[in-house]
């Protein structure tokens, strides 16, 4: 279908469902144009900057509109024609330059985004486009193996492609250089090192928890932080803890770490873990097909750390080498292959836990959720629990039907769709869903 017709369909749908004020439709939407960037990315060109601001507030409604026709979530951005054309030219240049990066470079393109890391990913992209503004320093924290270094390297690569001067160091290397210079007691050497670091547009320091806490190293570091913030240049730090929990730093340092944006990378949720497993399988080139429920099982049980996922996929490849090319790897194979591997807590997540959390919230029983009663409270609880079984556990609609008192898969689909619609329409309901989701996935 032509993009123009497709855009008309979406606008008509949003109009019909009264999801947008008619004046806004008239003034900003009917005068806009849709541009398809890829199957997953669309840009809506609006006539004015004010229009962009207003429509950005309604982004979720548009995402809903696209999903109704495409049956998938897509990225929707708003822009004016002038800005879009300017960015497009810059992107083409960047695309050319990015071909110079090694194949295994850690970039935003090969970082898989899901609810556990989307905030950190967004903040990381933001400091590349707006260096030295409000998110300075950017402080990313989280457990080992969840992608902190990956995001820091992505910032480095992307900023370098935009012709920025970037210094990325591990805290160990930074400490070594500083201690070396200080031990020599040669003032010029210390000044040279300071100037060398300060000459960059970005200073990225990984695993800050390992930084030496000696007074003089701290003093040196404090000076660097001040130079960067005063000159509007970007600082990025990563750590396994929040700034407040970092031991041994002076209070003034903690205040500096907190003066920009601290953002977590949380433990993987099952949907993201599943995407990373599928991506690794594809990247590493497993020859055999693997069944969906087998991947979900791996995601539920072994995805507390992305490094572990890589190890799991290596074992799958080894299994593949020993198997027939036509063999389809199923759940039974996987359970057998990983029977001695200790599983992560995610394995404890199941439909029962979802039903318990939702039943408590709506003050109904699990029996009622599985039963036939259709009071508003029971229906809401049932539909929401089905929705969570889909987005958190990634169960199929047939599977969910069976788990909720033997319902038809089309009943499940319409329940999920009802919840999605409510989330887009009602901000309060969206908040409830977010908080219940956190309660369910918390370890
Ligand atoms: N969301 C993701 N998408 C793709 N690859 C990822 C993702 N998260 C992590 N990885 C990969 O997992 C591996 C471990 O990630 P990384 O080194 O960035 O973790 P980390 O949080 O810095 O851990 P540590 O605190 O131990 O240094 C890397 O190979 C990284 O590329």
From TrEMBL:
Please give the residue ranges the record annotates as the region Domain IV, binds dsDNA.
321-443
Fetch the InterPro entries from UniProt. AAA+_ATPase, Chromosome_initiator_DnaA, Chromosome_initiator_DnaA-like, Chromosome_initiator_DnaA_CS, DnaA_C, DnaA_dom, P-loop_NTPase, Trp_repressor/repl_initiator
GO MF terms here are:
ATP binding; DNA replication origin binding; lipid binding
Which residue intervals define the domain AAA+ ATPase in the entry?
134-269
PROSITE patterns in alphabetical order: DNAA (PS01008)
According to the UniProt record, one GO cellular component term is:
cytoplasm
Keywords assigned by UniProt, alphabetized: ATP-binding, Cytoplasm, DNA replication, DNA-binding, Lipid-binding, Nucleotide-binding
Binding-site positions, ATP:
145, 147-149
Parts forming coiled coils: none
The name this protein goes by in its record? Chromosomal replication initiator protein DnaA
């Amino acid at each position: 279908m032509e993009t123009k017709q497709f855009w008309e369909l979406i606008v008509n749908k949003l109009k019909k469902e009264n999801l947008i004020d008619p004046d806004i439709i008239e003034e900003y939407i009917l005068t806009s144009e849709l541009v398809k960037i890829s199957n997953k990315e669309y840009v809506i060109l609006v006539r004015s900057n004010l229009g962009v601001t207003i429509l950005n507030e309604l982004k979720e409604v548009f995402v809903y509109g696209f999903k109704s026709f495409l049956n998938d979530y897509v990225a929707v951005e708003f822009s004016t024609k002038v800005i879009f054309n300017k960015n497009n030219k810059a992107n083409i240049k960047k695309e050319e330059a990015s071909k110079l990066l090694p194949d295994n470079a850690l970039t935003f393109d090969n970082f898989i985004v899901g609810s556990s890391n989307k905030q950190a990913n967004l903040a990381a992209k933001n400091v590349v486009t707006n260096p030295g503004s409000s998110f300075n320093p950017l402080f990313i924290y989280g457990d080992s193996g969840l992608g902190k270094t990956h995001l820091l390297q992505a910032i480095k690569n992307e900023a370098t492609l935009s012709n920025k001067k970037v210094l990325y160091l591990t805290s160990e290397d930074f400490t070594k250089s500083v201690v070396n210079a200080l031990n020599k007691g040669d003032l010029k050497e210390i000044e040279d090192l300071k100037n060398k670091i300060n000459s960059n547009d970005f200073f990225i320091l990984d695993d800050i928890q390992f930084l030496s806490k000696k007074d003089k190293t701290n003093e040196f570091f404090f000076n660097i932080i001040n130079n960067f913030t005063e000159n509007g240049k970007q600082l990025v730090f990563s750590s396994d803890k929040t700034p407040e929990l970092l031991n041994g730093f002076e209070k003034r340092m903690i205040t500096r770490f907190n003066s920009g944006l601290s953002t977590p990378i949380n433990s993987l949720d099952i949907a993201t873990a599943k995407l990373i497993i599928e991506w690794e399988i594809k990247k590493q080139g497993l020859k055999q097909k693997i069944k969906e429920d087998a991947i979900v099982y791996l995601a539920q049980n072994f995805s507390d750390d992305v490094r572990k996922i890589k190890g799991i996929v290596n074992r799958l490849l080894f299994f593949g080498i020993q198997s027939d090319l036509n063999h389809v790897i199923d759940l039974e194979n996987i359970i057998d292959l990983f029977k001695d591997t200790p599983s992560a807590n995610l394995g404890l997540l199941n439909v029962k836990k979802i039903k318990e959390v939702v039943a408590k919230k709506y003050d109904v029983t699990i029996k009622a959720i599985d039963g036939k009663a259709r009071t508003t409270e029971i229906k809401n609880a049932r539909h929401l629990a089905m929705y969570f079984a889909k987005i958190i556990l990634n169960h199929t609609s047939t599977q969910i039907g069976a788990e909720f008192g033997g319902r038809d898969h089309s009943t499940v689909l319409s329940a999920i769709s009802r919840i999605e619609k409510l989330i887009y329409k009602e901000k309060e309901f969206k908040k409830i869903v977010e908080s219940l989701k956190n309660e369910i996935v918390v370890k």
